[in-house]
Amino acid sequence: MEPVAIVGIDCRFPGAPDTGAYWDLLMRGADGVGEVPRQRWDAAEFHSPAGEEGRANTTEGGFIADPDAFDNEFFTTSPREAAAMDPQQRLLLQSAWRAVEDAGIAPRDLAGTRTGVFVGIMGNEWAQLHLTDYDNVTAQVGSGNGYCMTANRISYHLDLKGPSLAVDTACSSSLVATHLAVNALLSEECDQVLVGGVNVALTPALSIFYTQAGLSAPDGRCKPFSAEANGIGRGEGVGVVVLCRLRDAIADGRRVYAVIRGTSVNQDGRSNGLTAPNRWAQQAVLAAAYRRAGVEPSDVVFTEAHGTGTALGDMMEVRALGHHHAGRGGKPMAIGSVKGNLGHTEGAAGIAGLIKVALSLHHRVVPASRFAAKENKQLKLRDHGLRLLKAPLRLPAGPTVAGLSSFGMGGTNAHAVLESAPAHAARPEPADAAAPGGIGAAVFTLTAPNAEALRRNLLVQAESAAARRTPLGPLARSSNRVKAGHRLRFAAAATDTAELVATLREAAADPERLTRLSARPAGRTRTAFLFTGQGSQYPRMTAALYERSPLYRAFLDEADAALLPHTGRSVRDLALAGDEAVHSTRWTQPALFAVGYALGRTLMELGVRPGMLLGHSVGEFAAAVLARALPLEGAARLVAARGALMQELPAGGGMLAVRAAHTDLRARIESEPRVGVAAVNGPAATVLSGDLTALERIGAALEAEGVTTRGLQVSHAFHSPLMEPMLARFAEIADGTGGSVPEIPLYSTVRGRVLDGEAMDAAYWVEHVSATVLFADAAGALLAAGPTHLVETGPQPVLSGMVRRLGRAAGDGPAHVLPVRGPESAGRDLAEALAELYRGGVEPAWDAVYVPEDRVAHPLPPYAFSTEHRYWARNPVRRSAQPGAVPQERPAASAAEGPHEPGSGPSLAPVRPGTPADPVADAVLAAVGLVGGYTEAEVGPLDRLYEDLGFDSVMVMELKNRLESRLADIGTLTVQDLLPRLSSVGDLVAYLRELGATVPAAAPRGGARQDQALMQGERTA
To answer: Which residues are catalytic?
Structure first.
C-alpha cells in the first residue's frame, strides 16, 4: 500500500484540552476520570452500587470540560442554529479547523478542493433529547442532529468537495473511518482528508446498559490487561487528524507525524454472541493489515490495543495478538491502551488511539500503560509474546513500526499499521530553496473575525513564541501561510522573536496599537508605484537594505550588471560606498534607475503587483521596465547615455522652484528664450530651468512681487532649451534601443496622462529629455483612476508629499506606503511597508520575505476559540416523570447571552439614534432576531444576513413567512424578489419600504412577549 501521512492533529479529551495536554497526560500516566458533571445528569439519581434495573453502578467517567462552549460567531452560525446543534457537531467543527491549521494549511485555502471528511461516531443522545420533544422540533433542530451532519457540517463550513460521511460501527467507528479515508486517498478520490471521532455523553443510558450487561466498572475506570480490571468506564472526547499521501506531504514540505502503512477492516460474522468479541476475526484483521502494510509481525515494536479492561475482551485480544507474536522469543511486543487514562471514548476510541500512536512515533517514546503495575497473570502475556509497558519505551533511531486495534461492539474490527515518518518528512527541507528571498526582517500576520478574537489569539501566539524561543523566520512564515482567511487582518514587522513577542503583547493590551496594526480591507486593492527622480539621491543610498536583504541585493546586482557595459564602473559600488560622485549627473541618473528598478522588482517578487505606474523624470525609465515597455538592458543603455551626455553639456544652467502656477509664469518666460518650464509639480509648484542669468532676473522680479522662489542645487538646466545640444546624439542611441507600448497602465509625465496604446519609443525618450515634467497632471490622472495604495519607489520619500499637496483632503486619498524612508532604512521599513499593504488587502508572496533556510513549516498554536457563548439542552436529564407532569424549570440562557426582562419584546431600537421609532424597521429587526436567535443588541441595520448573521435558505424562508405575518401592504413576498435585497438588514428594510410596507395598528397582544420567550427557549435548546 502507498504510505499515507498524518500531517495535522487536534484533540480534546478528559483532562486534556488540546494535543499538547493530551501528550502530557499520557506521559504522566495521569487519570482523566472524575465525577459525572451535574450539567449532564444527576449521577446519584441513577446510581445503584448493586446495579439495580434502570440504574448504573458508577457515578464516574471521563468527561471533557466546557462541551457547551461554541464560538458560533467565528463560524457565522446564528445563536438559534448553534443552540440546536448536537455538541458533537460543534466540537468537531472547531477541532477540524485547528487540525487543518496544525497541518500548516490555512483552512480557507481548502475551499473548493477535493478534501474528504470521514467521521466516526457512536452516540446520538442529543437527538434522543430533542427530536422526541415534538412541540419544539424546528428546521434547525433537524439539521442539528443526525450522524451524517457531523461530517457534512465540516464540509459545508470549509467548503470541501470530497466525500463526506459518518461511520457508526460502535467502538471501532473512527478507526474504520480512517480505513475508508486511506482508501479514498489511495484511489485518488481525495487529495487530503479529515478524519475525526467524537463522543459526548449526555445521558446515563449507555452507563445503564453497560451495567445491565455486566460490563461496567464500579469506579468508572478501564484497567486494560490489569489484575484489577473489572469492566468499562465511559469516556468522551473529540479528535481530528489530517491525512494526505506521503509523497504529497513531502512535495509540499509538510511536517509528518507518522505514516499509515496499512489498514484493514472485517466482521465477526456469526460468533458466540452479537456483542461478544471473536478471537478468530481479530486474528484475521491483524493478518490482513500486516499483509497490506508489507510488514512481518516481528517488525511491530508496540501496539495500541483496544484494551477495554473487560475479562472476556482482554483475553480474546491477547490470544489474537499472541497468534502472530508468540514466537518473538526475548523481544515481546509492547502493548497498552489509552482507555486506562480516559475511559472508553466509544466512537472516538479509534481516533484517540491513532493520535496516541502518531505522537509516540513522532516523539520517539511510547508512554507507560496505566494500571500496568498489576498485570493480569491469567492472560499469560509473555507466553503470547507481549508485555505491558510499566515505564515509557524509548524508541531507537530509524524506522519504527506500530499497530493499532479498535473493535466494535457489533463485531466490526479494524487494525492499522503505522510507521515513524522518514527523517526528511519529520523535519522537512526548506521549500523552494533555489528561489531568492529575504528582506532583512519578518512580517507576522494573524486574522480573526473581530477585534476581541484578534486580541485573544495574539496573546496565545505571544506566549507560545516567548516560551519556545522559536526562530523568527519560520515562525512568521508559518503565520503568513496558516493564520489567514478572516476579514480583520493584523500584521507587524519584527527583526527578532523578542521584539515580536513584545509587539504582540502590546497590541493585545493597547486598543490604539491594535487599531494601527490591523484593518479590514474595504475591497479590491489597486496599487500604484511612484518612481522618484533626480534630487532624491544621497551617498550610501539603500546601503543598509542592500546589506540585510538578499532579495533586494539580487535585483540591485542585476541592474548594476546591465549598466556596467555602458558606465564602465559599478554604479552599485559607487552608490553604496558613500561616494559624493553620486551627485554628479553622469552617475546620479543610472544610480537612481538601479535603485528604482531594484526596489520595484523586489516589491513585485514580494507579490505586490502594481496596477499603475508613474515616474518623475528619470524615474520613468524604471517604470518603463516594470511595464515591459523597455527591456532592462535597453533602459540601462538609455539612462547611462542620458546621464553622460547631460554631464558633457556646458555649465551655466540652473533651476528655480517657484511657488506659483505655471500659467502665471508664462509671460515671464516668453521673453526668455533660454528658460523653460522644467516641471509642474502642483497647482502652485512650478520649476523653471535654463540660463542661470535669466533665472536670476526672473527670480528677482518674482521676489519683488512677493512670490517665493528657491534656487536648486543642480549641475545643469534639466528639461530646458539648454538640453538641445545633446538631443541628436541621444536620438542615435535611442533609435537602436526601441521601445514598446506599456503592458501596465503608465501615467506619463511627458503627456500628463496615461499612455493609451502609445509606444515609449525613441521619439518618446528624446522628447523626454527637454519636455516639461507634467507631474501634477499625470498624478492627478492617476489619482482619478482610484488607487488604494501609492508605493513610493526610490531612496527617500519625495513624491508622496507632492501628491498630498495636490489638494486632496486628508483621509480621502490612497494610503502612502514607503518601503525606504531614508539613509537608515533597512529591512524593517520594507517589512512595515509590506505589512501595511497586507492590511489593506494585498496578498503578498510570503516566501520571498524569507531566506531559503527559513522556509520550513513551524507549528503554531491553533486558533483559540471564544468560550463566551454556551449552548446546552433545554431540559435536564431526569428519571421518568409522572404522566402529564410538566418540568418545573427551564435553564435560562447563559449570562453571556444578555439579560431578558419578563414581557420585553424583540428589539424596537430605531435605525438611527435620536430619531422617532420606525415601526417597519422595528418589525424587520425583530423578525431577523427571532429567526436567528439574536437579542436586540446583536442585530442592526448594517449587519449582513449571510456573512454576519449566518442565514441560510431555510432561515430565509422562515424570515419571509414572519415578515408576511408582521407587515401589511406587501402582498406575498417571493424568494426570487427577496434574495437580491438581503445584502444587509438595512437593505431589506429599504426594499420593504419600497413595497409600501406598514405595521398593522392592532397587532396581536402578547406577540412580542411570546417571541421573546420563544427566542430565549431556543437559545438554550
So the answer is: 171, 306, 344
